[in-house]
């Protein structure tokens, strides 16, 4: 066995590329800011790795929204149909989850949208809403080029969706065409919304200072209220518009290469979209467990973990789940419990091993939270500058299981953000059922303006 000091040196050598200094993070922040500016410019947009997509959402809720709305939520873990009743003192909702079989998700667009309309009709029947014409908000969480609040051209499918004949098409038109085919003549689609925007809007109903939306779940993304005068890709200079950053793709043009470690490269190479969504692959739930797995494999190879005993099960992709990080990192968790998780993976760990595994998890999740903070620092600093303020007070509406369940992610995010953007006072507000509620609120704001 290696001597303790040698062992420590090996561990630090493996982990040091994942430990980001303040200046590393400031550089990431500056790069994000640069990419945001490029993405907003009409001439420079194509050069940016963050798409900065206009959403045509021009205001957050002001509390005067009222009415009854339908909402669809497609692009998260489940497809849902909802009815949302926005009253003076409350928002009430009823919803139904519908399974979309893989054969439809990866079939034709016609089949997919037919299926969606069938689900809406089933829901309306069950809720006794067949006779009413309710405005519908559609949370559609895939990158879209929006040409209006109710016109969104799909740029690419992600997250395992692959229905043919949809990319390049307006998804609202696809939905309306399907409604006609199914003789549903009263469907009134008024808005398409990204899940980040839905999250911002639903938190915005409770807190008027909420002008940013953040998702840290399977993937990561953010949106915020930008000044129209800075949005070169849309006509007009008055007021503000919510911009869907699609920040998961930050770094896809090579600008973050100095941050990526060998472990990140190995994770990226084994995904269905190598070279794409590189920022997301450092931060979100789909990838953190994989990063940890590759580090553990390297430690076994260096004989600093499990006495160098080979661990065949650890070779399996996704076997080290991101939810294990959440458990292993709980403060004061008995190391016995860490040992139990490792034993389930056929890893016969000593107490020293479990201390080391915990350190690896902490390093990976801390880096994720800090990078997320660097991105968010660029956003809040831009908003502060936009408004010519010495001090910006703003709220971020957040959703996503990693953010909500990890014991330290949110705190690490907030602490780092305070260091990187000291002139901004940022509150994080967890959204409940943001996608559905948010889509209805966008529909409500649209109906109020109409
Ligand atoms: P989506 O973003 O698709 O709406 P979620 O917000 O539910 O989905 O996030 C799902 C992701 O959360 C998965 O990648 C999973 O690895 C991760 N996850 C699930 N449970 C936990 C947990 N307890 N701690 C951290 N991450 C988790």
Automatic annotation (TrEMBL):
Its EC number is 2.7.1.1. Keywords: ATP-binding, Glycolysis, Kinase, Nucleotide-binding, Transferase. Residues 10-205 form the Hexokinase N-terminal domain. Residues 211-445 form the Hexokinase C-terminal domain. GO terms for molecular function: ATP binding; D-glucose binding; fructokinase activity; glucokinase activity; mannokinase activity. It is an enzyme of class 2 (transferase). Pathway: Carbohydrate metabolism; hexose metabolism; Carbohydrate degradation; glycolysis; D-glyceraldehyde 3-phosphate and glycerone phosphate from D-glucose: step 1/4. GO terms for biological process: glucose metabolic process; glycolytic process; intracellular glucose homeostasis. It catalyses: D-fructose + ATP = D-fructose 6-phosphate + ADP + H(+); a D-hexose + ATP = a D-hexose 6-phosphate + ADP + H(+); D-glucose + ATP = D-glucose 6-phosphate + ADP + H(+). GO terms for cellular component: cytosol; mitochondrion. Belongs to the hexokinase family. This is hexokinase. It comes from Strigops habroptila (Kakapo). The lineage of its organism: Eukaryota, Metazoa, Chordata, Craniata, Vertebrata. The chain holds residues 376 to 825 of 827 of the full protein.
